[in-house]
Backbone:
């Protein structure tokens, strides 16, 4: 585990959130693994968690020997994930297993911190050194391995945003409309048929969405990126800049990196 990566258990994170004054989140964290706990049992869990964190120098004891404080940089990581200025939300949906995995990348000032828990028990915080590392960390959070394709990785066609929302469940009429839109937008008929076949029988669907808090503290979700992965292909869909369409391309490392940067995170 590198110096910029810190892993904590569910119980340890619940204690850390409590020390940050985020008691409701702490209670929800414990609720992942425990039924309703009496205060004494919560106290016992926190004592055990504090011992583990102290041994790993993730907690410090104040001069009076009683008050605990969170050591740096873990304290800063918790601050960034608790009140970020912007967040990228990552999700992978495994259609065969009908499971999903999520991760978050938070920005606060000039700090970029990723957070992920795949099982609810182990929680990983990682510092991303610079904006240049955002794409690589995004691939890690998604569990996405890009298969380099020798075909053109530039824009191939445009697809109306309203048809992108449920590509896997298109009706026959919507599929025909999508095929016509793709062909008029730049695909050959063969490419359009292949894309729609891949979309409706995808093995995995990956998405990246930018989340921001507006002036009224409402959460806004920006349309982000979608990767459709079938047995034989990987397609990248990203906003065309006009707000009405998604551009469809073959996925490549350089294109993924460029489009992550285009999210203006």
Residues:
């Amino acid at each position: 585990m590198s110096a910029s990566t810190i892993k904590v258990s569910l119980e340890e994170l619940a204690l850390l959130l409590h020390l940050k004054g985020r008691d409701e989140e702490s209670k929800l964290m414990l609720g992942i693994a425990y039924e309703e706990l009496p205060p004494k049992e919560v106290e016992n869990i926190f004592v055990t968690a504090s011992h583990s964190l102290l041994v790993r120098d993730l907690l410090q004891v104040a001069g009076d020997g009683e008050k605990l404080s969170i050591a740096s940089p873990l304290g800063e990581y918790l601050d960034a994930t608790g009140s970020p200025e912007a967040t990228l939300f990552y999700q992978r949906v495994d259609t065969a297993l009908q499971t999903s995995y999520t991760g978050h990348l938070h920005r606060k000032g000039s700090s970029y911190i990723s957070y992920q828990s795949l099982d609810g028990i182990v929680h990983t915080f990682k510092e991303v050194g610079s904006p240049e590392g955002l794409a690589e960390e995004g691939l890690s959070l998604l569990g996405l391995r890009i298969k380099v394709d020798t075909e053109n990785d530039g824009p191939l066609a445009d697809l109306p945003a309203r048809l992108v929302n449920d590509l896997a469940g298109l009706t026959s009429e919507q599929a025909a409309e999508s095929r016509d839109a793709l062909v008029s937008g730049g695909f050959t008929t063969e490419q359009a048929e292949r894309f729609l076949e891949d979309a409706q029988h995808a093995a995995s669907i990956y998405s990246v969405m930018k989340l921001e808090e507006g002036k009224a503290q409402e959460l806004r979700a920006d349309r982000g990126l979608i990767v459709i992965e079938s047995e034989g292909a990987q397609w990248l869909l990203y906003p065309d800049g006009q707000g009405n369409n998604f551009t469809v391309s073959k996925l490549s490392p350089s294109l993924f990196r460029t489009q992550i940067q285009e999210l203006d995170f």
